Description:
Layout: E1 5-7, E2 13-16, E3 26-33, E4 40-41, E5 49-52, E6 61-69, E7 72-75, E8 79-83, E9 88-91, E10 104-107, E11 109-111, E12 117-122, E13 125-126, E14 133-134, E15 140-143, E16 154-160, E17 163-166
Amino acid sequence: PPASQTVCPGANASFAIEASGTPSLSYQWQFHGTNLIDGVRISGTTSSNLIIANVLSSDLGSYAVVVGNACGAVTNSSATLTVNAPPSISLPPTNQTVCAGESAVFCVAATGTPALSYQWRLNGVNMANNGRVSGVTADCLSIANVQGSDAGDYVVTVSNACGSVTSA
């Protein structure tokens, strides 16, 4: 039977089946989307391989193939296509003005298929945790005892298996 797959949007997915029987065998792939009860025939898919080019989130679902010959037909067990969501920033960090010696916290809200990873940068340079700075690889960056050298532009890059996005 075909194997289930997980891909990112824009990638290609490929399902294949090995079947035996008296030639000549026929193939008809079916799609069972998240809102469908019965399989829908996929037009033009009459070989043992199914290639879905440039996968979209609407391609999420199960795929099965009906294999037949002059003596009958059988539907294989289905394979699931999971489409991961690339990262997206739903709430960027906000500007802050604090006095020297106070604390500052920058947070970002992001969505996407887990696991999301984070990297905060100050003026284009990746930050590192130290005695005053924590959370450089988390959704919230904390800076204690703010000093003049902490002034600048803070951005965070959020990544997962499907790509990355950088905040304002």
